[in-house]
Amino acid sequence: SALNSNTTGSNNIANGQQVLYSNTTGNNNIAIGYNSGGTNKTGSNNTYIGNGADCTDSSYNNSTAVGYLA
Question: How far is CA 58 from CA 5, 40, 68, in A?
Answer without folding.
Answer: 13, 4, 19
